[in-house]
Design a protein that fits this description.
Elements: H1 19-51, H2 54-58, H3 62-77, H4 83-87, H5 92-117, H6 124-133, H7 137-149, H8 168-172, H9 177-186, H10 190-200
Helix pairs in contact: 1-3, 3-5, 3-10, 5-6, 5-9, 5-10, 6-7
Length: 205
Amino acid sequence: MRTDDLIFVSENERSDSDVPFFRNLREQKKIISGIVKSAKEEKKRQLRYIQMSAEDFAQLPENELFDAAYARTNAKLDRFENVRDGVRTLSKPQKVFFAASYYEMEVSNGGLCQFFVNSSRCIAPVLSECLQEIGADEHKALFDAFVSDNQIDVRDFSSFEIDDLSAFTAQTERYPFDEFDEAFYALPPLTDYLTAYVQKHISAF
């Protein structure tokens, strides 16, 4: 077909059957544009948290404390290629915050099995202590009971190492992970405890 054979019509000249197609395109463009805008705004917000002074951080409202502490803690870890090296540079409250928030993120995203399968399992040996430190006693009891009842050694997760995603399903069937996840989601969110913990140790962040 030659280019001069193409028929160009204005939006008003399109038939009724064309309208949904173009409307969907416009809606999709708006959605994508909104996502990009939100991502840029979030990146800008994170940068503000990282760069603000300790005095300004201490003045943040309660509903911003968790996100700000998360951004500032991870900014320190991002300076290191090896996360373990980065963790060594954190203050004790930051280490506790990092471990508990990492656990919360993994379990909320994909359940306890995901926490065990991913590299996040490296914090398992200290997790119970960290949950106790932030006052999340019910979360600590739930985690402790699961590893105890199922005879899981938190110092050895070699059996949870997988080479590809297809092996994940087999891992989920080894233990009653669904029961744990349901109980976890029913408890008060760890972010509430972590926010209170940051308030208590504000100068360490």
